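User: Could you check the structure of this?
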Amino acid sequence: MQNSRRRFFKNAGTGALACSLSSTLFSGNLLAMNSEVNGKKEDQFKVGIAGYTFVKFKLEPSLEMTRRVNVNYLCIKDFHLPLDSNSAQIADFQNKLKARGITGYAVGPINMSSEAEIDKAFDYAKGVGVKLIIGVPEHELLSYIDRKVKEYDFHYAIHNHGAEDKRYPSVESIYEKVKDLDTRLGICHDIGYTAQVGLDPTAITLKYGHRIYEMHIKDMTIGSTKGVDCEIGRGIIDFPSLIKALRKTKYNGKCSIEMASADPLPVIAESVGYFKGVMKAV
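Assistant: Sure, the predicted C-alpha coordinates are below.
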Protein backbone atom coordinates (compact mmCIF):
# COMPACT_ATOMS: atom_id res chain seq x y z
CA MET A 1 0.00 0.00 0.00
CA GLN A 2 1.36 3.38 -1.00
CA ASN A 3 1.55 5.73 1.95
CA SER A 4 0.07 9.20 1.38
CA ARG A 5 2.60 10.74 3.79
CA ARG A 6 5.53 9.50 1.70
CA ARG A 7 3.74 10.50 -1.50
CA PHE A 8 3.19 14.03 -0.19
CA PHE A 9 6.83 14.50 0.77
CA LYS A 10 7.96 13.12 -2.60
CA ASN A 11 5.62 15.42 -4.53
CA ALA A 12 6.69 18.42 -2.48
CA GLY A 13 9.93 18.27 -4.45
CA THR A 14 12.26 19.14 -1.62
CA GLY A 15 13.83 17.13 1.14
CA ALA A 16 14.17 20.27 3.24
CA LEU A 17 10.40 20.77 3.29
CA ALA A 18 9.83 17.18 4.30
CA CYS A 19 12.35 17.36 7.10
CA SER A 20 10.94 20.64 8.34
CA LEU A 21 7.35 19.44 8.29
CA SER A 22 8.18 16.08 9.83
CA SER A 23 10.10 17.80 12.61
CA THR A 24 7.16 20.08 13.29
CA LEU A 25 4.72 17.18 13.41
CA PHE A 26 6.65 15.05 15.82
CA SER A 27 8.03 17.79 18.05
CA GLY A 28 4.53 19.09 18.71
CA ASN A 29 5.54 22.62 17.70
CA LEU A 30 2.22 23.27 16.00
CA LEU A 31 2.35 27.01 16.53
CA ALA A 32 5.02 27.20 13.85
CA MET A 33 2.49 25.91 11.33
CA ASN A 34 0.28 28.97 11.67
CA SER A 35 2.35 31.57 9.83
CA GLU A 36 1.23 32.12 6.26
CA VAL A 37 3.50 31.19 3.39
CA ASN A 38 4.72 34.37 1.72
CA GLY A 39 2.52 35.32 -1.20
CA LYS A 40 -0.23 32.76 -0.48
CA LYS A 41 -3.78 33.76 0.32
CA GLU A 42 -5.27 32.41 3.52
CA ASP A 43 -7.62 29.48 2.93
CA GLN A 44 -11.33 30.11 3.40
CA PHE A 45 -11.72 26.82 5.29
CA LYS A 46 -10.39 26.33 8.82
CA VAL A 47 -9.28 23.32 10.84
CA GLY A 48 -11.61 22.26 13.64
CA ILE A 49 -12.33 19.28 15.84
CA ALA A 50 -15.59 17.33 15.85
CA GLY A 51 -16.82 16.79 19.39
CA TYR A 52 -17.19 13.03 18.90
CA THR A 53 -13.39 12.85 19.00
CA PHE A 54 -13.75 13.34 22.76
CA VAL A 55 -16.60 10.91 23.36
CA LYS A 56 -14.61 9.27 26.19
CA PHE A 57 -13.74 12.56 27.90
CA LYS A 58 -15.52 15.25 29.87
CA LEU A 59 -15.65 18.83 28.63
CA GLU A 60 -12.68 20.34 30.49
CA PRO A 61 -10.01 17.88 29.30
CA SER A 62 -11.52 17.98 25.80
CA LEU A 63 -11.15 21.74 25.63
CA GLU A 64 -7.64 21.55 27.03
CA MET A 65 -6.60 19.08 24.33
CA THR A 66 -8.17 21.31 21.68
CA ARG A 67 -6.21 24.27 23.01
CA ARG A 68 -2.96 22.32 23.15
CA VAL A 69 -3.12 21.42 19.45
CA ASN A 70 -3.83 25.07 18.61
CA VAL A 71 -7.29 24.54 17.12
CA ASN A 72 -9.91 27.22 17.66
CA TYR A 73 -13.12 25.60 16.38
CA LEU A 74 -15.26 22.86 17.91
CA CYS A 75 -18.34 21.08 16.59
CA ILE A 76 -20.40 20.64 19.78
CA LYS A 77 -21.70 17.22 20.83
CA ASP A 78 -24.64 16.82 23.18
CA PHE A 79 -22.67 14.69 25.65
CA HIS A 80 -20.73 17.90 26.43
CA LEU A 81 -23.74 20.21 26.23
CA PRO A 82 -27.05 18.31 26.58
CA LEU A 83 -29.93 19.11 24.25
CA ASP A 84 -32.07 20.19 27.18
CA SER A 85 -29.52 22.68 28.54
CA ASN A 86 -30.96 25.93 29.88
CA SER A 87 -29.63 29.41 29.15
CA ALA A 88 -27.42 29.45 32.25
CA GLN A 89 -25.83 26.11 31.35
CA ILE A 90 -25.23 27.29 27.78
CA ALA A 91 -23.65 30.52 29.02
CA ASP A 92 -21.35 28.58 31.36
CA PHE A 93 -20.37 26.28 28.49
CA GLN A 94 -19.62 29.20 26.18
CA ASN A 95 -17.54 30.91 28.86
CA LYS A 96 -15.40 27.78 29.18
CA LEU A 97 -14.81 27.80 25.43
CA LYS A 98 -14.05 31.51 25.36
CA ALA A 99 -11.49 31.17 28.14
CA ARG A 100 -9.46 28.90 25.85
CA GLY A 101 -10.00 30.85 22.64
CA ILE A 102 -12.34 28.22 21.18
CA THR A 103 -15.50 28.88 19.17
CA GLY A 104 -18.34 26.39 18.98
CA TYR A 105 -19.40 26.71 15.35
CA ALA A 106 -21.97 23.91 14.93
CA VAL A 107 -23.87 21.21 16.83
CA GLY A 108 -24.07 17.49 16.11
CA PRO A 109 -24.24 14.99 14.69
CA ILE A 110 -27.73 14.55 16.15
CA ASN A 111 -29.96 11.60 15.29
CA MET A 112 -33.55 12.64 14.60
CA SER A 113 -36.52 10.32 14.29
CA SER A 114 -39.47 12.67 14.85
CA GLU A 115 -40.59 16.23 14.19
CA ALA A 116 -40.37 16.90 17.93
CA GLU A 117 -36.68 15.91 17.92
CA ILE A 118 -36.08 18.21 14.96
CA ASP A 119 -37.79 21.09 16.76
CA LYS A 120 -35.64 20.44 19.81
CA ALA A 121 -32.43 20.38 17.75
CA PHE A 122 -33.21 23.69 16.02
CA ASP A 123 -34.10 25.37 19.31
CA TYR A 124 -30.91 23.95 20.83
CA ALA A 125 -28.77 25.34 18.00
CA LYS A 126 -30.47 28.72 18.30
CA GLY A 127 -29.83 28.77 22.05
CA VAL A 128 -26.17 27.86 21.54
CA GLY A 129 -25.85 30.61 18.96
CA VAL A 130 -24.85 28.57 15.91
CA LYS A 131 -26.46 28.33 12.49
CA LEU A 132 -25.24 24.90 11.41
CA ILE A 133 -26.73 21.58 12.51
CA ILE A 134 -25.11 18.26 11.66
CA GLY A 135 -27.88 15.69 11.58
CA VAL A 136 -28.88 12.14 10.72
CA PRO A 137 -32.65 12.28 10.12
CA GLU A 138 -35.07 9.64 8.91
CA HIS A 139 -35.89 10.08 5.22
CA GLU A 140 -39.55 10.89 5.81
CA LEU A 141 -38.55 13.93 7.90
CA LEU A 142 -36.61 15.73 5.18
CA SER A 143 -39.58 17.80 3.99
CA TYR A 144 -40.07 19.00 7.57
CA ILE A 145 -36.37 19.91 7.86
CA ASP A 146 -36.73 21.76 4.56
CA ARG A 147 -39.36 23.97 6.20
CA LYS A 148 -37.24 24.45 9.33
CA VAL A 149 -34.13 25.68 7.50
CA LYS A 150 -36.30 28.29 5.79
CA GLU A 151 -37.89 29.33 9.08
CA TYR A 152 -34.59 29.61 11.00
CA ASP A 153 -32.24 30.46 8.10
CA PHE A 154 -29.91 27.68 9.29
CA HIS A 155 -27.80 25.22 7.34
CA TYR A 156 -28.43 21.55 7.99
CA ALA A 157 -25.76 19.05 6.92
CA ILE A 158 -26.48 15.31 6.80
CA HIS A 159 -23.57 13.09 7.82
CA ASN A 160 -22.64 10.04 5.69
CA HIS A 161 -21.84 6.97 7.79
CA GLY A 162 -20.63 4.28 5.40
CA ALA A 163 -21.92 0.92 4.27
CA GLU A 164 -23.43 -0.02 7.64
CA ASP A 165 -25.82 2.95 7.53
CA LYS A 166 -28.69 2.06 5.22
CA ARG A 167 -30.08 5.61 5.29
CA TYR A 168 -26.99 7.62 4.28
CA PRO A 169 -24.09 5.33 3.35
CA SER A 170 -22.52 7.83 0.96
CA VAL A 171 -22.44 11.48 0.00
CA GLU A 172 -24.30 10.60 -3.20
CA SER A 173 -27.13 8.98 -1.20
CA ILE A 174 -27.52 12.25 0.74
CA TYR A 175 -27.43 14.40 -2.36
CA GLU A 176 -30.13 12.34 -4.09
CA LYS A 177 -32.42 13.01 -1.12
CA VAL A 178 -31.76 16.76 -0.79
CA LYS A 179 -31.00 17.96 -4.33
CA ASP A 180 -34.54 19.25 -4.90
CA LEU A 181 -34.92 20.76 -1.43
CA ASP A 182 -33.80 24.13 -0.06
CA THR A 183 -30.11 24.65 -0.80
CA ARG A 184 -29.42 25.22 2.92
CA LEU A 185 -30.09 21.50 3.39
CA GLY A 186 -26.88 19.73 2.38
CA ILE A 187 -24.01 17.44 3.31
CA CYS A 188 -21.50 16.79 6.06
CA HIS A 189 -18.80 14.93 4.14
CA ASP A 190 -16.99 12.39 6.30
CA ILE A 191 -14.05 11.58 4.06
CA GLY A 192 -13.13 8.47 6.04
CA TYR A 193 -16.45 6.80 5.29
CA THR A 194 -16.15 7.87 1.65
CA ALA A 195 -12.76 6.13 1.40
CA GLN A 196 -14.08 3.13 3.33
CA VAL A 197 -16.74 2.45 0.67
CA GLY A 198 -14.06 2.57 -2.03
CA LEU A 199 -14.66 6.10 -3.33
CA ASP A 200 -12.19 8.95 -3.76
CA PRO A 201 -12.85 11.80 -1.29
CA THR A 202 -11.33 14.32 -3.70
CA ALA A 203 -13.62 13.32 -6.58
CA ILE A 204 -16.66 13.33 -4.30
CA THR A 205 -15.74 16.77 -2.95
CA LEU A 206 -15.39 18.15 -6.46
CA LYS A 207 -18.72 16.66 -7.58
CA TYR A 208 -20.86 17.64 -4.61
CA GLY A 209 -18.94 20.60 -3.18
CA HIS A 210 -21.76 23.03 -3.90
CA ARG A 211 -23.86 21.28 -1.22
CA ILE A 212 -21.12 20.38 1.29
CA TYR A 213 -21.35 22.55 4.41
CA GLU A 214 -19.19 20.53 6.80
CA MET A 215 -16.17 18.22 6.48
CA HIS A 216 -15.21 15.57 9.02
CA ILE A 217 -11.69 14.43 8.29
CA LYS A 218 -9.53 11.42 9.15
CA ASP A 219 -7.39 8.97 7.23
CA MET A 220 -8.21 5.32 6.47
CA THR A 221 -5.90 2.30 6.48
CA ILE A 222 -7.46 0.71 3.38
CA GLY A 223 -10.30 1.55 1.02
CA SER A 224 -12.79 -1.12 2.07
CA THR A 225 -15.19 -1.92 4.88
CA LYS A 226 -12.24 -3.58 6.63
CA GLY A 227 -10.45 -0.25 6.81
CA VAL A 228 -10.18 1.65 10.07
CA ASP A 229 -9.45 5.30 10.71
CA CYS A 230 -5.93 6.45 11.46
CA GLU A 231 -3.87 9.61 11.84
CA ILE A 232 -4.04 11.95 8.86
CA GLY A 233 -1.12 11.24 6.56
CA ARG A 234 -0.70 7.58 7.57
CA GLY A 235 -3.39 6.07 5.35
CA ILE A 236 -4.61 6.06 1.77
CA ILE A 237 -6.31 9.44 1.39
CA ASP A 238 -4.54 11.93 -0.87
CA PHE A 239 -4.72 15.11 1.23
CA PRO A 240 -2.84 17.43 -1.17
CA SER A 241 -5.47 16.65 -3.83
CA LEU A 242 -8.30 17.02 -1.33
CA ILE A 243 -7.09 20.46 -0.25
CA LYS A 244 -6.85 21.56 -3.87
CA ALA A 245 -10.44 20.37 -4.36
CA LEU A 246 -11.60 22.37 -1.35
CA ARG A 247 -10.02 25.46 -2.84
CA LYS A 248 -11.48 24.81 -6.27
CA THR A 249 -15.00 24.44 -4.85
CA LYS A 250 -14.47 27.52 -2.64
CA TYR A 251 -15.32 25.58 0.49
CA ASN A 252 -15.51 28.03 3.41
CA GLY A 253 -16.55 25.77 6.29
CA LYS A 254 -14.53 23.74 8.76
CA CYS A 255 -12.42 20.64 8.23
CA SER A 256 -12.92 19.00 11.60
CA ILE A 257 -10.90 16.04 12.77
CA GLU A 258 -13.16 13.24 13.98
CA MET A 259 -11.35 10.24 15.44
CA ALA A 260 -12.38 8.74 18.78
CA SER A 261 -9.45 7.26 20.70
CA ALA A 262 -8.59 6.25 24.24
CA ASP A 263 -5.64 8.67 23.96
CA PRO A 264 -6.71 11.33 21.43
CA LEU A 265 -4.09 14.02 22.06
CA PRO A 266 -1.21 12.49 20.05
CA VAL A 267 -3.66 11.39 17.36
CA ILE A 268 -5.12 14.84 16.81
CA ALA A 269 -1.75 16.59 17.29
CA GLU A 270 -0.19 14.62 14.46
CA SER A 271 -3.30 14.97 12.29
CA VAL A 272 -3.59 18.73 12.80
CA GLY A 273 0.11 19.19 12.10
CA TYR A 274 0.05 17.14 8.93
CA PHE A 275 -3.14 18.72 7.57
CA LYS A 276 -1.95 22.27 8.25
CA GLY A 277 1.43 21.37 6.79
CA VAL A 278 -0.19 20.25 3.55
CA MET A 279 -2.26 23.43 3.49
CA LYS A 280 0.97 25.44 3.58
CA ALA A 281 2.84 23.31 1.08
CA VAL A 282 0.38 22.87 -1.82
